[in-house]
């Protein structure tokens, strides 16, 4: 299969409604929306609405996710979304509804339309779970749902595994970016398959890639950014911390540090030692020809040069 069959159409060939995501040194872009924060935050499980609002502010996030099923279950109480909207307005952020809890493409599509009407946005984090134990995305239902939603004008952020072929199929049907997992949702295990994630980054160099799920510590987020991923999305690592607001700030710094490290160029690993200080140019050099412990002064002749 050639590259033309596995990549999104070029700009000249883009169908109407095709949305692209672009990578940049200091920003990233989805369609005509430019973002500078590379930390996306979830809104479930916080101790209180105030803590949630403060955590959003501390994170510096410009994209905050919310589950539609959570909102529907609290019908008649708009306080939750009002708090989120107020926090987002304070830092120019956007709401990203998700279809968490869906098991089929049909259910996800129906929920997506409800989300677009309720939140007045075409952005959608698409989740279609295929296994209740691991909460692993169902690749087949996911691609079917993504194709339908793109056709209906949604900007789809697909939550997927790190499988390269599935990721290519999602790009083929028009997803502007990908959100592969680092580990199962809520597990806090970090990046359990760095090889697969590195492969995604290498094979899809121009695609916006966001690590979603499994992040448990700021070091995990930094690692993802050091691998060249464009952003991270997490929820439980902040909401379940003893001090969520402080943890949100810690993740913000970790994401920024990891991004800076990627841009600066992380040194390559070696299987052996490499001296950081060269011998040449030292003020005093060990003289292999001299007796044990003898020193030779730079420029000294071989005759009478040691004492």
From TrEMBL:
One of its GO terms (molecular function) is thiazole synthase activity. It is an enzyme of class 2 (transferase). Residues 30-278 form the Thiazole synthase ThiG domain. Keywords: Cytoplasm, Schiff base, Thiamine biosynthesis, Transferase. The keyword Cytoplasm applies. Its EC number is 2.8.1.10. The active site is at residue 125. Pathway: Cofactor biosynthesis; thiamine diphosphate biosynthesis. Catalyzes the rearrangement of 1-deoxy-D-xylulose 5-phosphate (DXP) to produce the thiazole phosphate moiety of thiamine. Sulfur is provided by the thiocarboxylate moiety of the carrier protein ThiS. In vitro, sulfur can be provided by H(2)S. This is Thiazole synthase. It comes from Comamonas serinivorans.
């Amino acid at each position: 299969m050639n590259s033309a069959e596995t990549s999104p159409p070029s700009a000249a060939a883009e169908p109407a409604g095709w949305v692209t995501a672009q990578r940049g040194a200091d920003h990233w872009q989805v369609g005509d929306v430019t973002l500078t924060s590379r930390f996306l935050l979830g809104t479930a499980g916080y101790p209180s609405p105030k803590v949630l609002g403060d955590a959003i502010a501390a994170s510096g996030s410009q994209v905050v996710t919310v589950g539609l099923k959570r909102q529907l279950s609290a019908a008649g109480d708009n306080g939750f979304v009002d708090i989120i909207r107020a926090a987002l307005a304070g830092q120019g952020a956007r709401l990203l509804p998700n279809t968490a809890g869906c098991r089929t493409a049909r259910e996800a599509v129906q929920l997506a339309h409800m989300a677009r009407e309720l939140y007045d946005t075409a952005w959608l984090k698409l989740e279609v779970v295929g296994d209740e134990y691991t909460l692993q995305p169902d690749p087949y239902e996911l691609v079917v749902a993504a194709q339908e939603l793109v056709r209906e004008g949604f900007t789809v952020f697909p939550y997927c595994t790190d499988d390269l072929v599935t990721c290519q199929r999602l790009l083929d049907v028009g997803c502007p970016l990908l959100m592969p997992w680092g580990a199962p949702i809520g597990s806090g295990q970090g990046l359990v398959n760095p090889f697969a994630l590195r492969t995604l980054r290498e094979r899809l160099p121009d695609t916006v890639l966001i690590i979603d799920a499994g992040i448990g510590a700021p070091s995990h987020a930094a690692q993802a950014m050091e691998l060249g991923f464009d952003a991270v999305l997490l929820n439980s690592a902040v909401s379940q911390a003893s001090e969520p607001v402080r943890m949100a700030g810690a993740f913000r710094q970790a994401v920024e540090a990891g991004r800076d490290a990627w841009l600066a160029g992380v040194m390559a690993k070696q299987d052996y030692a490499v001296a950081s200080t060269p011998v040449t140019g030292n003020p005093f050099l060990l003289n292999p020809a001299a007796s044990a412990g003898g020193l030779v002064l730079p420029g000294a002749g071989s005759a009478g040069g040691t004492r």
